[in-house]
């Protein structure tokens, strides 16, 4: 089955261009813009949920305004360790996989994928509602169409490439930062004189509640507010997941980006919670809590007698709504990165590890984007429904990441001189994230949290089944390699350099490596066409996927590997007295690479006949086989046939060809000579049946003898 292909984006790219990685990589500032918007946009719904949870005990907002930044910096400090340990990206997924085991990584990655899909859906829905709140009410009925249109636009710009999407969204991000610095800064400075009274009221409220309910009640209320505002923390892991797209030195760039993200999130979220208390804001019908706060802050903003506070509020809310769209973009950017890493480890179909000519995971972007569209359509774009599904999954990944770091630093206590400080940060992070996760599940389970957990479980189960399938395929190909490579001398030495005949018939083989499948295809073709073929040509495509797109060194290693495999084919052929050569190329697009190689072969050998091998295992063939295997040979075969060239796909039955002859249901007419052949076959079958009947009769006569007779 061919995956969705978008020809308008296809182009050949030189992956060995030394300026390629520099042109695609992101400095800390651009990475903050591209990956930090998810966390910053959570100020639209995270802090309000925290404040609502304190109803009747608003004085506790002081503790939360301090506790939120502290917990953010604890978690971000843990993720700085992740960046240092895994500078090639992967974040929480690689941390759990490496430090806790592959199955923990599967759970972590699955949770992140679901979380990012929900991030895209809820961010677009919330952003649309924020923007429509300043427009006439009849626009509200069209919000679902606007949601879908915005998501389709985000899918489009991300297919154009990471850096291009960030450049488009940069002005929006900076407008949000500027308006909120002015708004929140003015709100704090203009009421700095209220700080002593707020401190006094906080102490008095804590003493009163301690006498009435006890300190356990106060602590439980604070933890509940933390958990209900868990959406505030989403996005912190995005930097560690995407560190591989950052500019060298990656570790320092990633850690600077994490510092920018943690600082900006702490300032915005902490300031909002404190300002809610300072301005005594309450929820108003048809307005968000932030809208009420901004209106209160700008209520007396005038210049030359002209009031512009309402205009400033609208501008701030518009930037907030637009930033939510950037947060949706972050989900669409980052989820395919996680999916690509999981595909490299075979938890997802291998096609998700492929990069497009824009060096993005096209298949992942399409799947995540359209999954978010489906969720919006299913929920009607209602934020109240989406919010109960949100924020659980990210804390699954947080908790597994901190647990893995804690285990790692404890194991390194005899080798790492600074293990105590790092272990302390990891354990604190684990305690914070595990507590919030437990309370969030308890609070949101009946309200829809069960659905999020169920979807995550389904993704985990599917990932495990996909891994089992690929594991069985690896076992099959290993057996095929062992069988076929027996015909190859242990120390393969190339024979004489036989001259090629460009005008002669040429057998051209698409191969990936020197293995059993390639050898079987070669030997089968040689048996079929060896009598008139003069040349044997091997085409190898080095595919640059997520695992190879790490830098020039990784690409050079890929080039060395591909050429070594190609030289083994040439040595084998020359050792057998066959003139042979090879061509290789390197690309992010497997089909484009194979087509380019075919064009090269045709240019040098016009009388080319193409061959490719295909493993057939009737036991593992199922309805989803096409999703797990790209089957690109059929696409290339169709293209070559349209150009007038023959291509044969040679089947390799690893468990033997089915022994039963095919059943013929329809009446078949045939020529008289074939009727004679058929009669001969019938006579042969009749003779066999008679012989079997005779043997059975003899056996029956032996059985019918006297049972008491002695055996001889």
Automatic annotation (TrEMBL):
Subcellular location: Membrane
Transmembrane segment boundaries: 59-79, 104-126, 138-157, 169-192, 212-236, 257-279, 322-344, 365-386, 392-411, 423-442, 448-467
Entry keywords, A to Z: Membrane, Transmembrane, Transmembrane helix
Keyword tRNA processing in annotation: no
Compositionally biased intervals (Acidic residues): 703-712
A molecular function GO annotation: transmembrane transporter activity
Low complexity composition-biased segments: 688-699
Keyword Transmembrane helix (UniProt): yes
Membrane-topology descriptor: Multi-pass membrane protein
GO cellular component, one term: membrane
Annotated segments matching region Disordered: 679-712
Main location: membrane
Alphabetized PANTHER family for the sequence: POTASSIUM TRANSPORTER KIMA
Protein name: Amino acid transporter
């Amino acid at each position: 089955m061919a995956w969705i292909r978008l020809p308008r984006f296809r182009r050949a790219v030189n992956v060995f261009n030394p300026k390629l990685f520099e042109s695609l990589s992101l400095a800390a500032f651009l990475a903050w813009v591209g990956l930090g918007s998810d966390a910053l946009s959570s100020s639209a719904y995270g802090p309000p949920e925290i404040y609502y949870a304190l109803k009747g005990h608003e004085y506790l907002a002081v503790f939360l305004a301090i506790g939120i930044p502290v917990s953010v910096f604890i978690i971000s400090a843990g993720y700085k360790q992740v960046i240092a340990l895994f500078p090639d990206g992967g974040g929480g997924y690689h941390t759990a996989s490496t430090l806790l085991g592959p199955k923990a990584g599967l759970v972590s990655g699955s949770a992140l994928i679901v979380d990012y899909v929900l991030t895209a859906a809820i961010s677009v829905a919330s952003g649309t509602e924020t923007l429509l709140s300043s427009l006439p009410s009849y626009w509200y009925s069209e919000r679902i169409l606007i949601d879908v249109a915005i998501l389709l636009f985000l899918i489009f710009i991300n297919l154009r490439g990471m850096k291009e999407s960030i450049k488009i969204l940069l002005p929006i991000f900076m407008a949000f930062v500027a308006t909120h610095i002015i708004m929140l800064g003015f709100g704090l400075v203009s009421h700095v004189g209220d700080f002593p009274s707020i401190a006094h009221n906080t102490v008095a409220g804590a003493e009163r509640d301690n006498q009435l309910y006890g300190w356990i009640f106060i602590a439980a209320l604070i933890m509940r507010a933390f958990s209900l505002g868990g959406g505030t923390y989403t996005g912190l892991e995005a930097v560690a997941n995407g560190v591989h797209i950052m500019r060298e030195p990656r570790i320092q760039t990633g850690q600077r980006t994490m510092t920018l993200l943690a600082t900006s999130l702490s300032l915005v979220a902490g300031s909002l919670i404190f300002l809610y208390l300072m301005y005594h804001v309450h929820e108003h019908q048809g307005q968000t809590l932030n809208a009420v706060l901004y209106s209160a802050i700008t209520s007396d903003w005038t210049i030359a007698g002209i009031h512009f506070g309402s205009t400033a509020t609208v501008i701030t809310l518009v930037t907030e709504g637009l930033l939510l769209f950037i947060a949706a973009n972050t989900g669409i950017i980052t989820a395919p990165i996680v999916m690509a890493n999981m595909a490299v480890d075979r938890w997802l179909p291998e096609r998700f590890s492929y990069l497009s000519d824009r060096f993005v995971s096209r298949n992942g972007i399409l799947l995540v984007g359209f999954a978010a569209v489906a969720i919006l359509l299913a929920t009607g774009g209602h934020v109240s429904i989406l919010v109960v599904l949100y924020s659980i999954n990210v804390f699954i990944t947080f908790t597994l990441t901190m647990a893995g770091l804690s285990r790692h630093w404890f194991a390194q206590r005899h080798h790492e001189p600074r293990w105590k400080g790092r272990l302390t940060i990891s354990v604190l992070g684990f305690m914070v994230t595990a507590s919030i996760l437990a309370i969030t599940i308890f609070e949101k389970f009946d309200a829809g949290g069960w659905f999020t957990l169920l979807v995550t479980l389904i993704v985990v189960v599917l990932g495990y089944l996909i891994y089992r399938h690929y594991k069985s395929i690896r076992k099959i190909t290993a057996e095929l390699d062992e069988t076929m490579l027996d015909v190859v001398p242990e120390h393969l030495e190339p024979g004489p350099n036989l001259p090629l005949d460009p005008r002669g018939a040429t057998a051209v083989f698409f191969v990936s490596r020197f293995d059993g499948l390639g050898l079987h295809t070669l030997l089968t073709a040689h048996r079929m066409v060896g009598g008139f073929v003069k040349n044997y040509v091997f085409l190898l495509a080095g595919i640059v996927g997520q695992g190879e797109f790490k830098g020039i060194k990784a690409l050079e290693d890929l080039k060395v590997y591909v050429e070594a495999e190609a030289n083994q084919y040439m040595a084998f052929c020359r050792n057998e007295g066959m003139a042979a050569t090879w061509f290789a190329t390197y690309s992010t697009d497997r089909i484009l690479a194979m087509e380019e190689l075919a064009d090269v072969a045709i240019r040098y050998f016009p009388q080319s006949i193409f061959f490719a091998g295909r493993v057939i295992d009737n036991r593992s063939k199922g309805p989803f086989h096409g999703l797990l295997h790209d089957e690109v040979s059929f696409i290339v075969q169709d293209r070559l046939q349209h150009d007038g060239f023959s291509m044969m796909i040679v089947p390799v039955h690893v468990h033997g060809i089915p022994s039963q002859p095919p059943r013929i249901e329809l009446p078949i007419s045939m020529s008289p000579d074939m009727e004679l052949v058929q009669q001969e076959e019938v006579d042969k079958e009749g003779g066999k049946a008679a012989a079997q009947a005779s043997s059975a009769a003899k056996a029956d006569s032996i059985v019918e003898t006297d049972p008491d007779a002695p055996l001889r």
